[in-house]
Amino acid sequence: MSCILISGGFGYIGSHTATLLSEKNQKYVIVDNFSNCKREIVDKIRTITKNKVCFYDCDIRDNKNLIKIINENKVTSVIHFAALKSVSESIVNPLEYYEVNVNGTISLLKAMQLTGVKKFLFSSSAAVYGEPDFCPIDESHILKPLNPYAQTKIIIENILKDIYKAEKNWSVACLRYFNPIGAHKSGLIGDDPLSGKNANLMPEIIKVVRGIKDYLEVFGDDYPTPDGTGIRDYIHIMDLAEAHYKALNFIDKKNGINFFNIGTGKGVSVLELKKAFENVSGLNVPIKISKRREGDCAACFANPKKANDILKWSAKYDLNQMCESSWKFVNRNSK
Ligand code: NAD
Ligand code: WQD
Q1: Per CATH, is 3-181+234-264+300-315 categorized as 3.90.1150.10?
Q2: Predicted confidence (pLDDT) per residue in 131-153, tens digit
């Protein structure tokens, strides 16, 4: 039976993907150093999947340990989520980002090479496109990294291209995620980072409804968009998890390297997301308009046609379902 190594499998996207793989009876082993997740995540995944969770508290830069884990578990493919992901922090501390994201990935890829594992699914990001020249963005859009975080994703994509050039029996897919939000239907797991460095929109809305913040700071209402606020492609976390399952099936069958946008293709503004959350929660989210956040663009949404056609994947959940699941997660986890 095949076994998937999930690096960073206790993080936001990894934990949801793990529950989905379990639902599909896919065996997996998680490698995570718990740098951005709570220990209680292990029990939560166990509760949802009703299965023992096989995991190692291990840093992806610990190449020797990775080799041991791959051999012990007869790993056949890897989904690589483990990374640092704060854009702002990457600008302040670029070396740490290159060290963990790039060196960490090289360590993992070397462990795979040594053990003969050649199927690799990589968590890339819409951040690789920078300020888009056009929307919806397709995969041929020029890559214009605006920060070290995005640079790390492009460097890794290039390393993967070179590996495939050198060894044609590798099978690689790079999934460029847009803006994942929402939570598992149980409400048990959701976006629950250890560090407060990621001031993404949905977590910020949640801080307001939980009374941690008095208002949502809206970064600019003077963009050339219908309501003046920034437009993004929000995607339900379980749709994103499903994209990994479909991509795993794809790389299982075909050698090569492919890049896929994983988004809904629909642009939603800051005010539209805020409104949708208010409708679902029945609560008012006060706002304060402030100046544009540095590095933000007016609009960024995907053309997901390649993933629709080749992976046979498309997003199923709408904005209300994204908000409902986030709201359920907040209610189940607020003390
Ligand atoms: P996350 O921080 O919730 O999860 C990452 C997990 O990796 C955490 O559990 C953390 O403990 C672990 N980890 C970090 N460094 C590690 C190391 N050196 N060794 C072992 N484990 C380590 O992040 P996420 O939102 O689940 O993102 C997963 C991946 O998707 C990342 O590569 C991220 O860059 C990418 N991505 C995320 C988003 C997003 O908006 N969440 C968007 C695009 C791409
Ligand atoms: C969305 C919109 C903000 C917070 C980031 C990373 C990207 C990817 C996903 C990892 C923008 C506005 C936000 C707030 C606001 N992550 N906003 N008030 O910037 O599209 O993407 O997360 O790969 O790389 O850059 O997401 O959620 O931060 O912002 O008005 O308090 O919400 O200006 O228009 P972003 P976001």
Answers
A1: no
A2: 999 999 999 999 999 999 999 99
Active site residues per annotation = 149
Please say whether the beta carbons of 207 and 213 come within 8 A.
yes
Ligand found nearest the CA of 82 = 1
Distance CA 53, CA 48 (A): 11
Distance, in Å, from the CA atom of 126 to the CA atom of 177, rounded to the nearest integer, reads: 6
CA distance 120 to 187: 30
Q: Of all protein residues, whose CA lies closest to atom 35 belonging to ligand 1?
A: 123
**pLDDT per residue as tens digits for the range 64-83:** 999 999 999 999 999 999 99
Residue 113 confidence (pLDDT) above 70:
yes
Ligand 1 contact via 327 beta carbon (within 6 Å): no
Cβ partners under 8 Å of residue 131, min gap 6: 144, 146, 297
Cα separations in angstroms, 328 against 42, 57, 86, 271 = 20, 29, 25, 21
Q: Which of 303, 237, 298, 229 is nearest to 266 (CA)?
A: 303
Instruction: Report domain extents, the chain.
Output: 3-181+234-264+300-315
Answer yes or no: is pLDDT of 190 > 80.
Answer: yes
CA 101 to ligand 1 centroid distance, Å:
10
What pTM was computed for the model?
0.98
